[in-house]
Amino acid sequence: MDKPLTQHIRPDKKPLSLKEYEAVGGYQALKKALKGMTPKDIQNVVKESNLRGRGGAGFFTALKWSFVPLDAPQPKYLIANADEMEPGTFKDRILLESTPHQMIEGMILSAFAIQATESFVFLRWAYKVAAETIERAIHEAYSAGYLGKNILGSGFDLTMHLHTGVGRYMCGEETALLNSLEGKRATPRAKPPFPQVSGLFGRPTIVNNVETLCNIPHIVNQGADWFKKLSRTQDSGTKIYGVSGKVKRPGAWELPMGVTMRELIEEYAGGMKDGLKFRGALPGGASTDFLVEEHLDVKMDYASVAAAGSRLGTGTLVVLDDHTCPVGFVKNLEHFFAQESCGFCTPCREGLPWVERILESIEEGDGKAKDLDLLHMHTRQLGPGNTFCALAPGAMEPLQSALKYFKSDFEQHIHEQRCPYNPIPVTLENV
Amino acid sequence: MLTTKEKVEIEKAMSAVPVRKAAGIEALKIVQGQRGWISDETLCDVAEYMDVSPEELDSVATFYNLLFRKPVGRHIILVCDSISCWVMGYEGIVTALQEKLKITFGETTPDLRFTILPNCCLGCCDAAPAFMIDNELFRNVTVDQLDDILNRYE
Predict the structure, then answer these.
(1) Bridge-partner residues for A244, per DSSP?
(2) What is the ipTM of this complex?
(3) Do A183 and B23 touch (CB under 8 A)?
(4) Which residues contact A248 (CB under 8 A, 6 or more apart)?
């Protein structure tokens, strides 16, 4: 089984140096591209490969690139979105810490494909090991002539800077990320204009996820057909999947696109911990709808997960077991979204804390029958089209699906005026 | 008053971007790195040096979770409170930490040794529960490890 992204990761997870990366074929794709390929050639092979963005939205990478006017005056920007902050997601960290040059090579190729001359890595502050690794790797790449002026004698110039953020989920949204890079609050921008035309400092800009970028050298090297054959489904390539929660062996694995949720949980994660049963899972981070037992054989690709009523998102599952309260689970998620709302638009700023308070009162035994109607109302009013960006609609995905699949749990909380998953507290009355 | 070192670093950050104002977050990181937090006075000094209004700079400073506008202790404990850690026993870790340090979220111990803050997903969900102390990440934490971990910090 081919695992292009992770095949060279060492057992101790220590990063590959430039020399080690070159020894396993690193920067061959860049040499190939700069010697004999035009920017359009690269865009074409990526287009044929059907690569879709691995950050969560799944937009076709080459299509995103194609909106950049190639002949626009410089500077144009290429940005690696390494602000991995979707709760339950820990896949980019692995690539950043262990194979920094793979991403850098992907960035140089992508920058060449859109003819950008400046690039940034927007890295989450919490990823301290990755910050050191990336900083060192950028320095090595400059020294070897892969970055800077006239790269490998091709006439193509590219600068690269590492920017570490100061913590805000919104920075993962690409236009908010651009505002943050400009030293502003990370609030989203109105679209259009799209960043491809007017992005960072008003210049054409592409923002790609780390895992997406890491795929580029392999596609350039081995071609679109090879990339498609890596997958079991119509969505091509491999995917770094992960499982967390109360399973025997939580972890992340690079696997063919389209493995099933059952394989991930039962084979790779070793099944549920003893004595626990699977109740559901968020397939791709906090902002995806729950999938439940009937979906265990759903293929984990964009189209199949969408057909099952959710989104592949980041492909890192968070598992809910039968001893964990679904109401408490969703309350934790909504607390996160309420806190991380940027406050820019009213439905999100006011609605999410309201949702959180309702869930809190249900969980604490103060739930009222009409609370469920209020929650349903929010899933509509904070849904797609009613807010400025995708944060609140994303926050509603786990809520609406929890109300559907775990309805009896919500009702039991309200009926019994307590959380049935917590032991009954000992009070003077019931001693 | 900004120190010479701070001014040099802020100047460098401003020269790296096309618009000077764009270095605002970088400048705040620089002074926080030196002073631990950003007081009103420090904020005004940075704003004056960068030629932006203090209000505008403060709107940035107060937006981000990791820019501190209140004093913090020598070490900052950031406890992941997101979903995988919550499932795996976050509440037990937080309760034990708060009992040991006798402070709650947002507070600093009287000896200024620790500040404890909740934090969004730290991206190590397969090793939950987790927290960071300063730059160091602790994974798969159990309550009985806490004393050993805390004792490493003066």
Answers:
(1) A318
(2) 0.96
(3) yes
(4) A269, A270, A271, A272, A273
| Contacts of B50 by beta carbon, 8 Å cutoff, 6+ apart | B10, B14, B20, B21, B23, B24, B27, B57
- Tell me the CA end-to-end span of chain B in Å, nearest whole number: 29
**Which of A180, A321, A336 shows the shortest C-beta gap to B120?**
A336
Q: Looking at A304-414, which runs of residues are DSSP E strands?
A: 316-321
C-alpha dist (Å) from residue A292 to A74, A99, A334: 49, 34, 20
Shortest distance between the Cα of B135 and any Cα of chain A, in A, equals 6
CB contact under 8 A, A85 and B16: no
Burial call B99-117: b when 16+ CB within 10 Å, e when fewer: eebebeeeebbeeeebbbb
SS3 label, residue B126 = helix
d(CA A428, CA B48): 61
A287, closest residue in chain B (CA to CA): B83
Interface check for B83 against chain A (CB to CB < 8 A): the answer is yes
Q: What are the residue boundaries of the structural domains of chain B, listed by start?
A: 4-61, 75-151
Q: Are A231 and A80 in contact (CB under 8 A)?
A: no
Per residue in A111-169, pLDDT tens? 999 999 999 999 999 999 999 999 999 999 999 999 999 999 999 999 999 999 999 99
The CATH code of domain B4-61 reads 1.10.10
Answer whether B137 touches A (CB < 8 Å). yes
Select from A379, A295, A340 the least CA-distant residue to A171.
A340
CA distance A206 to A195: 7
Where is A210: in which H helix or E strand?
helix A210-229
pLDDT tens across B129-151, in order? 999 999 999 999 999 999 999 99
Quick one: CA dihedral A351, A355, A360, A366, positive or negative?
positive
* pLDDT tens-digit map of A305-352: 999 999 999 999 999 999 999 999 999 999 999 999 999 999 999 999
**Within a 10 A sphere around the Cβ of A344, how many other Cβ atoms?**
17
Across the strands, what pairs with B115? B76, B108
Helices (H) and strands (E) in chain A, counts: 16, 9
**Block residue for tokens 């690039």:** A119
Name the stretches of chain A with pLDDT < 50.
Answer: 430-431
Cis peptide before B129 (omega within 30 of 0): yes
Cross-chain Cβ contact A182/B66 below 8 Å: no
All structural domains of chain A, each given as residue ranges with its CATH number in brackets, are: 18-229 (3.40.50.11540), 238-321 (3.10.20.600), 326-416 (1.20.1440.230)
**Distance between CA atoms of residues A89 and A87, nearest Å:** 6
**CA A260, CA B118: separation in Å to the nearest integer?**
34
Sign of the torsion formed by the C-alpha atoms of A45, A47, A53 and A54: negative
Find residues 307-326 of chain A whose CB sits inside 8 Å of chain B. 316, 318-321, 324
Give the pLDDT of residue A425.
52
* Token digits of residue A237: 């390539």
Task: Name the superfamily (CATH) of residues B75-151.
Answer: Glutaredoxin (3.40.30.10)
